[in-house]
Amino acid sequence: MTSPADAVVLNRFLLGLAEGMTASDESVDRIRDTMATLADAYGSTATDIVILPTVILIETGGEEDRVSLRSTLSAKFRFDQIAALYRLIEQAKTASVAPDQGIRRLNEIGAMRPRYGWAVRTLGHALLTLGLALMLAPTWQGAIIAFVLGAGIGLLKLVRSPTLQLVMPIVAAFVCATGVFLLAEVIDIGDPIHLLIAPLVTFLPGGVLTTATVELAAGQMIAGASRLVYGFVQLALLAFGILAAGTLVGVDSADYEPLEGGGTVAWWVPLIGVLVFATGNYLHFSAPPSTFGWVLLVLAVAYAAQTIGGLVLGPTVSGFIGALAMTPVVLWIAGLRNGAPSQLTFLPAFWLLVPGAAGLVGLTEAVATDGGLADFTAALVSVMSIALGVLIGTALYRVVHHGAEEIVQFAVALPVAHDTDTRSTFTQRVKRWWHRERGGNR
Length: 442
Description:
Blueprint: H1 4-23, H2 28-41, E1 46-51, E2 55-60, E3 66-71, H3 79-93, H4 99-110, H5 118-135, H6 140-157, H7 162-184, H8 192-197, H9 206-217, H10 221-249, H11 269-284, H12 292-313, H13 318-335, H14 342-353, H15 355-368, H16 372-402, H17 426-441
Helix pairs in contact: 1-2, 1-4, 3-4, 5-6, 5-11, 6-7, 7-10, 9-10, 9-16, 10-15, 11-12, 12-13, 12-14, 13-14, 13-16, 15-16
């Protein structure tokens, strides 16, 4: 039987793993399922697990019910930390790591230093920005400007200051928009508004908005609604920075509208952009070397499917095709012995599909122009289409790989002390019957 002290250590281990998965931008329903699996593996008496974006609760049954609570931090894991966390989770699924050792390993993961220094990580953010700019098909001058802005934002993001992190989206959007609006008057950079998306890509809440939609569809109303509000606030901060820069420079309202037509680069340039984008993610987020090929594969599938979907169904729902195609690939890779965690390959694909980018453009136009509300509505549709693609892709993979699951039935479990028949032995039941019979014959 597990002692109370061991139960406390195990609960803290589970709470730490759940907090790590939250820092990896995992959805609350998947975190809860994982925690339930781990509790069973360790023989825990956990009767209920509640996961919210900022709070984690674990109720433990026994002689007296206990509730373990932890408030999650706002920390975000790099790709190397995500990979280390999920390796620990795989060990915990077979209870091959002791809870106290697991806690020490969690602290080591939280304190991990990046594999690369500040110069390489800054270069990685610049390459990430350049790759996305090439996929958005600007002019060559615009791609160079995006590279320079990406390097500046990457360097700014390395400053570890909680105060700066709060205002970072506004500062980044203001600095990038000021530079782009000023240079647009003297250099042919293509579409200024879409060019702004590239250096701001890691601030865009595309993954947050998509995860929120998936959680709402899964019935996680509190988590989904809170993430949705957080994502729109993040978009509003970015749009405010752009509008403030436009006011300072003296940009007309018509200049906030995207330009019609593509850029002046060749058709094969976006393909190079996918490779550059994957390389930038690898360097900036210190991804393990073994995961680069998997990330590139998912990005290639997502981009190819989105491109085909755009040609067949239009740009609004092209993200649905991209998400539908890449989700089974992501889950397949995560199930391989030498694969990569799903979040590590999902996040770059989310940024590639850029659901938040369309929302940023639409929100900026809605405030600065008269006709931007329709574009913002189209952006919401694109977010919904990507989330729907993820849902359907996940459902298809589970049906093919795991088979159909039973429908959960409503049930209320009795406390352990009252559910005596299910926990007593045959001898104990015979003794209780004998005592009742003797008492009745007196």
